[in-house]
Amino acid sequence: MSSSGRHILTAPAWPYANGPRHIGHVSGFALPCDMFSRYQRMAGNQVLMVSGTDEHGTPIQVQADKEGVSARELADRYNRVIAGDLHALGMSYDLFTRTSTRNHYAVVQEIFKGLYDNGYIFPQTTMGAISPSTGRTLPDRYIEGTCPICSYDGARGDQCDNCGNQLDPIDLINPRSRINGETPKFVETEHFMLDLPAFTDALGSYLRSKQGEWRPNVLKFSLNLLDDLQPRAISRDLDWGVPIPLDGWRDQPNKRLYVWFDAVIGYFSASVEWARRSGDPDAWRAWWQDPEALSYYFMGKDNIVFHSEIWPAMLLGYNGLGDRGGEPGSLGGLNVPNEVVSSEFLTMEGRKFSSSRQVVIYVRDFLERYDVDALRYYIAVAGPENQDTDFTWQHFLERNNNELVAQWGNLVNRSVTMAAKEFGTIPEPGELGDADRALLERSRGAFAAVGAELNRSRFKNAVTEAFDVVRDANAYLSQQEPWKIKDDPARKGSVLHVALQVVDDAKTLLTPFLPKSSGKVHEMLGGQGDWSGMPELREVDEDGVSYPVITGQYDDEARWEHRPIKPGTPLSKPTPLFTKLDPKIVDEELARLEQA
Ligand SMILES: [Zn+2]
């Protein structure tokens, strides 16, 4: 980590530990955050990127019951799978941990207490659906029955898909559990509620201050939610989760904090864990308490409400800044998010990603067959940044072959190969002409332009501008035709020097998107040391259980700046940067989808 610059917390959403990740997931929360974080590190800022697996809640308990394992065992399994997926994508987490750690429990309980002491959490007796056989809360969507309005027989406890009306599970005729078919029991049960209406004013000023900074759709959606904030239950009848840290509740085996309440606190608890692991337990404060520090949260649009409304409300409440006032909790005031960066949805060949219907391509399977940078490039240039977007194998093939291979791979290959063959080292430039100087200026100027786009999380614009430099360099080579220069080695050296300088610049400009192949270009040009750091998987232990975390040292070479290449640096004959794909992969992949 560099010693200057601003402290920037980058927070990609926590994947739910119920299965492997598919590319629809990682196009929203993961890859955009990594591109942003890598850029900010290169620009000299002190980035802390933390996340982990979200492991509590009824869906995991239900799936575990179905498979005859404990919730903990299921979470252990998918924590490992997901950590493997994200590591393979090159996600440069400072710490990727999980929500089932002692540290997370302690931090969640501290935030609960702060909110409770300030009066923003209150108990309420409600009628809740319970599974008679397990005593656990049956969430609304796990109950089905006949719609009281249209008599449709497959209505869910939260809504009827036939007539579209919102429902309350207690209104269903012949309600039954979707888990095991039994009739739910409606009983009086006491739960804690988060008093969201007490934050209407504070959230309103917070959100309105983001006008012009956030993506307009995210801000509009968030402002609309303010019109109807309701108290929200933060506990459940369940034995898998964080216990409620109050006398009379702590030891109740079937009362736990609701999973969404604990999961959003993960950003903070993971920062605390990172600080402890780094040897300075207070190191998190620079990202959470310094008013100059910045924080950016990345997610799919189905998660906006938790990041733009509920998490800021929890932080404001802990700080004592809602309608009821109060004092900051024992850790001191905590920073609210500076920006909530939400992506839209990715579909797959015109259909919604669905693990159950096998309309899916898992990260692991994808990376077995294709380069990681091919996926990263596709998501940057054609991902669901501002609108729902369809992934098709045909588009993927075209982006890979026509852009990565034919433009960037070709530029690197032909300039390095020719210079290595003719000179063996980076050639000395002679006197430069207008065309030479114009391309060099163009390339240097791109740092400010591409950097400004990356700083606003406009990945599509950023990668497109970086690629324009690559296209211009290819046009320059086609025009100068250095391969035809026979009797003027000085001129040939100048053209190749200019081309290699632009290759070096473009490698830097493309590093946030394509860290792995940029590292290869760095080596080809005679660079020493790691160019852009890659994450490592490390086994850690807690209570006798071993599990992986992702971490890494990212204080590497890459800086967001033009660096003059040094004549005389030895060059090696390049190996291809990317793999050209056979058009038949399109039919093969479509056949895999059909079979499934
Ligand atoms: Zn209905």
UniProtKB/TrEMBL annotation:
Protein task: Is required not only for elongation of protein synthesis but also for the initiation of all mRNA translation through initiator tRNA(fMet) aminoacylation.
Motif ('KMSKS' region): 352-356
Subcellular location: Cytoplasm
Taxonomic source organism: Actinomadura alba
Residues reported to bind ATP: S355
UniProt-annotated binding residues for Zn(2+): C147, C150, C160, C163
Protein's recorded name: Methionine--tRNA ligase
Keyword tags: Aminoacyl-tRNA synthetase, ATP-binding, Cytoplasm, Ligase, Metal-binding, Nucleotide-binding, Protein biosynthesis, Zinc
Gene3D superfamilies reported for this sequence: HUPs, Isoleucyl-tRNA Synthetase, Domain 1, Methionyl-tRNA synthetase, Zn-domain
Catalytic activity: tRNA(Met) + L-methionine + ATP = L-methionyl-tRNA(Met) + AMP + diphosphate
Protein family per UniProt: Belongs to the class-I aminoacyl-tRNA synthetase family. MetG type 1 subfamily.
Signal peptide interval: none
Subunit structure: Monomer.
Gene this protein is translated from: metG
Molecular function as annotated in GO: methionine-tRNA ligase activity
Organism lineage string: Bacteria, Bacillati, Actinomycetota, Actinomycetes, Streptosporangiales
EC number: 6.1.1.10
Cofactor entry: Zn(2+)
Cofactor binding, note field: Binds 1 zinc ion per subunit.
Domain named Methionyl/Leucyl tRNA synthetase: residues: 9-415
InterPro entries reported in the protein's UniProt record: Anticodon_Met (IPR041872), Met-tRNA_ligase_1 (IPR023458), Met-tRNA_synth (IPR014758), Methionyl/Leucyl_tRNA_Synth (IPR015413), MetRS_core (IPR033911), MetRS_Zn (IPR029038), Rossmann-like_a/b/a_fold (IPR014729), tRNAsynth_Ia_anticodon-bd (IPR009080)
Keyword Cell membrane carried by entry: no
